[in-house]
Each structure stands twice: as C-alpha cells, then as structure tokens.
C-alpha cells in the first residue's frame, strides 16, 4: 500500500488518517511523516507507546524496508520500493492473512478503504482496495475470514460509490478463485449496485458460475438458488 505524502495521524479519533478500534491506542497516538524519499514515524506522547522493531521510540524515527511498527495491538510492516515481490517470496504475505495479534495489516487496509470513501477520496480508496484484493487473490483464506469479508464489503462499496462494474468483477473473481459460497447479504448488495451499473466487464461472473457448478459436481454444499442467481446476473449484466 503506497502512503500518500504528508502527515498521517494514527489513533482512535475518527478524523485520524487511520482510525484504530483499540483501547490500547491513544486518541492521537502516532504520526507518519511521508515525503518523496523519506518515511518517519512520530510518537505523539501516547499512553502505551509506539514501537519500531520491538523498541519503544521517543519523538520521531526514520523507517526502512522491513521495519515493523506497533501502535496499540496493531503491527504494520514497512515494505519499501520493490519489496512487495520479496514479501510474497518469503511468506510475509501469507502471514498477513493468518490469525493472531500480529497479523492485522489487511484489516487495516480495509479500514482505509472505508475511511477514504467516507471522505470522498475515491482514488485513494481504489488504490487501497486494489492492494488488498491482490493480497487475497494469492493467499489461501476462507470466505468467512474477517479479512475476506472486509475486502468484499469494500469492493461492493467502491462499486456503489463509483458506479463502476469493474469492482464487482473483482468480487466475483475472488469468489471464483477461492470457491467461496457467496452470502445472501453480498448478493443483495450486488443487486443494489446493479440498479446503477448497466454492465459488469470482465469474466468474473462467468468464472464464478463455472466454479459453483464444479463445486456442485464435487459434492460441495452450494445452494441451488445461488447458482441460478449468478447465472441470471451473468445473462443480464455480464460481458467481457
């Protein structure tokens, strides 16, 4: 996730760039200072401290590739330019999807999407959503995992806000890749979006319909109404 240049506050207050639902975080806990060629973190005299690589900092500290920043219970990994592929190679990506206190980064991206949308910053929301979607595409995660639910919710919200079927196509592709059984809530939300979107480009709907039929043949529990609903949506709104 690329950070925008400027001063980005982290804490429990809603006006923070990153709002944390964490009782160990202060209202204004820390501040990222982002420049064209620098990244620093500053502790804002927080109650429980800001930590870099396990060390509590005082004032400002420069951040480098692979540093870990802890604010409250949340741990964020710094990935420098070109570092994303390295992270995938050594398993850091898989770690971000797992359970536990130290693996909350994807859920933070979901919060950034929702916050950007609420502030009318659609382009920022799209950038964050793309980063989260790319993570989930290449990681093994169940559909009921909080990160998966957060990503789907963000993509649907983006589709509704932008009236663009591209984001719905990504929803269907995620479900197709992982074989997720789409929830009734997601299906209802998608139908609501389609009242403003004439077409969903790409092959996501077709791929998901094929995946569902494959799951049925394999004996998986897939509601028949869901298979029919996806087929109907593909006929009405699908298109490459």
Low-confidence stretches: 82-104
Structural class: alpha+beta
Distance between the termini: 28 Å
Kindly report the average pLDDT value.
Answer: 83
What order do the SSEs take from the amino end to the carboxyl end, as H and E?
A: EEEEEEEEEHHHHHHHHH
Question: Could you name the key traits of this structure?
Answer:
5-stranded mixed beta sheet, elongated, 9 strands, 240 residues, 14% strand, 9 helices, alpha+beta
Indicate the topology.
Elements: E1 6-11, E2 18-19, E3 30-34, E4 39-43, E5 50-52, E6 55-56, E7 60-62, E8 68-71, E9 74-77, H1 83-90, H2 92-97, H3 105-118, H4 122-137, H5 146-162, H6 165-178, H7 184-193, H8 204-217, H9 224-237
Parallel strand pairs: 1-2
Antiparallel strand pairs: 1-3, 3-4, 4-7, 5-6, 5-8, 8-9
Helix pairs in contact: 3-4, 3-5, 4-5, 5-6, 5-7, 6-8, 8-9
Description:
- The structure is a single chain.
- With 240 residues, this protein is of the alpha+beta class.
- It is 47% helix and 14% strand.
- The protein is built from nine helices and nine strands.
- A five-stranded mixed beta sheet has the order 2-1-3-4-7. The chain has a four-stranded antiparallel beta sheet with strand order 6-5-8-9, with no helix packed on it.
- Strand 5 and strand 6 (55-56) form a beta hairpin.
């Amino acid at each position: 996730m690329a950070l925008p240049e400027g001063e980005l506050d982290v804490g429990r207050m809603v006006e923070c760039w990153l709002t944390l639902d964490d009782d160990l975080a202060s209202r204004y806990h820390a501040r990222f200072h982002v420049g064209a060629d620098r990244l620093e973190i500053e502790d804002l005299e927080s109650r429980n401290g800001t930590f870099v690589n396990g060390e509590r900092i005082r004032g400002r500290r420069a951040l480098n590739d692979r540093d870990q920043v802890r604010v409250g219970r949340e741990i964020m990994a710094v990935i420098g330019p070109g570092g994303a592929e390295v992270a995938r190679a050594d398993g850091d990506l898989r770690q971000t999807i797992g359970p536990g206190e130290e693996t909350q980064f994807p859920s933070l991206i979901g919060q950034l999407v929702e916050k950007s949308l609420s502030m009318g910053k659609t382009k920022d929301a799209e950038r964050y959503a793309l980063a989260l979607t790319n993570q989930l595409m290449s990681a093994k995660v169940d559909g009921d995992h909080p990160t998966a639910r957060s990503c789907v919710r963000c993509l649907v919200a983006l589709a509704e806000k932008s009236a663009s079927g591209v984001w719905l196509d990504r929803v269907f592709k995620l479900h197709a890749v992982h074989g997720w059984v789409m929830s009734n809530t997601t299906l209802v939300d998608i139908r609501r979006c389609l009242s403003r979107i004439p077409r969903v480009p790409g092959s996501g709907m077709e791929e998901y319909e094929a995946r569902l039929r494959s799951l049925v043949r394999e004996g998986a529990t897939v509601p028949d109404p869901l298979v029919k609903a996806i087929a109907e949506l593909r006929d009405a709104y699908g298109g490459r």
